[in-house]
Amino acid sequence: MNHWRVFRVALLVGARDFRMFWNWRTWAFGWMARILTSAASWVLVGKLVGDPGRLDYLLVGNASVAGVGTFAVAAAAWERWDGTYSLLLAAPNSMAPAMMGRMAIWIFHWVASSLCTFGVLLTVFGWHLSSAALLVVPLGVTLLALSAYALSLFLGAWIGLIPALRNIVINVLTSAILVLSGATVPLSFWPRWVQLIAGTLPATHALAGIRSALAGGSALLIARAFALELAVCLGWLVLALLTIDRIAEAGRANGSIHLS
Amino acid sequence: MIAVEAVSLGRSYEARRRSKPVRALDDFSIQIQKGEIHGLLGPNGAGKTTFIKILSTLLLPTDGSAFVLGRDVTRELRFVRTSIGIVLGGDKGLHSQLSARETLVYWSALYGVPNHETKSRVAALLDRVGLTERADAWVETYSRGMKQRLHLARGLIANAPVLFLDEPTLGMDPLAALDFRKLVANLRDEGRTILLTTHDMAEAEAVCDRVSLIDHGKLIAVETPATLGRLLSQFERVDFGATSAVAETVRSIVGVTRVSPLAQADNFRAEVGDRPALRAVLACLVSAGVTSVRTSPPSLEEVYIHLIGDRGLNV
User: Fold this and answer.
1) If you ran DSSP here, which 8-state letter would residue B297 be given?
2) Which of A149, A195, B136, B199 is most buried (most C-beta within 10 Å)?
3) How far is A76 from chain B (nearest CA, A)?
């Protein structure tokens, strides 16, 4: 019960973090302009190649992962910059709900970024979605954002302890999602062992489900892909919940937790 | 009753990999009574913050034990964490994008303050620290003094009986610091135990019941501010009005540790190390025709300098 209360108040901290970065104008004309430009440039590469299939592939991939992974992981280091990390650890409640709440705001940001990117790119490049796909895409994008959030929580626990890892983790994570999950490079391109690693990343299965839906694939195939994405999400979430406090407590032994 | 206790407490760390371990705290033993305001004084790196971190459950000791209200700080985390409030100094430790009210609601949740009590407790704390009028403004708009009062309210949110104050008046203007000290004194009247680090000698003398001097991780002395002054009673100080030539003569007397000019022109202060030296100084001044002479006990700051040396007064 108290965990839920902590989550809710921490969500407010996250919402204020968001407000420090964006208002609706800067979000729409700054953030979305950047994301759309980035996604559109990939799609244009596909168009230049002259292969409509490749264009569709890149459009769906880039729209689905638009912006994922950026700010949530960084938010974990903000407790250190604020000087509140040590106070959170010294409080009797677990740190996990506080971290989960503060980072959760970025789920909405990712889903909104992705759906807006879908909307704009589909309109610009003249694509039409079936009504079934119109339902499946938001579901897939939400699942993708949730599993990216769960992985961010786990990585965030390490970043909270070692803030210097922040930029490395953000760059590796976003690159890995973009390259290995099937967003820009088909999964089949990679050797088997890379495919196995990709299967544990957020986005891989959700993207497969979204692509199936857009290609008119069977409901069973889509459901299987989404179920796998959900499993990845839960796996990272359980790992995060099991380790957040333990990782923070490790700082007690090595002396890396400062009072301010 | 003992509120805070350390028994042969030690903490080592390696400054660099494979370097010789540094003893941040070494065979450190102390007992702090319930309801006491206890000051920790020492230069940078003396071990004060290490001690506070161990008591706050943020650092594990490598030797010895520490207890808060009789409970081991390394084993009984939940009890200790609900029993202590941490009040940081400076701008860190607050979410600048929350208001004071939101800050206190946030920490109420983390400390498990019952939901139905939160609103009234937050309002009472805001009133107590004088932030009611600005309670809904973002913390980033607050002055240094207001932030510090919010820090204190945050530390009190769980009604903890033991408080750790880490340089609480750092950077505050004198009036704000005075107000803050009054708040701290009121907390003692409620029976709370307060352990505070400070670099401000006047603050230690004004609010502390006892003061510990720490250096190189070791406890040098634990006394009341007044007793600590008497500790070095042999270090009498003599204030006199005379020419620079007379001051130089005084400086040359064996046993005089220092002669320094005072704010008023042609006035000096001599610090002497023993009684014979004091007699020699007085005799010298009388023979030089000096009539303005005054002796007095040293301030805590002077005691501090005599005990620790001139390595700096920063905590």
Assistant:
1) P
2) A149
3) 13
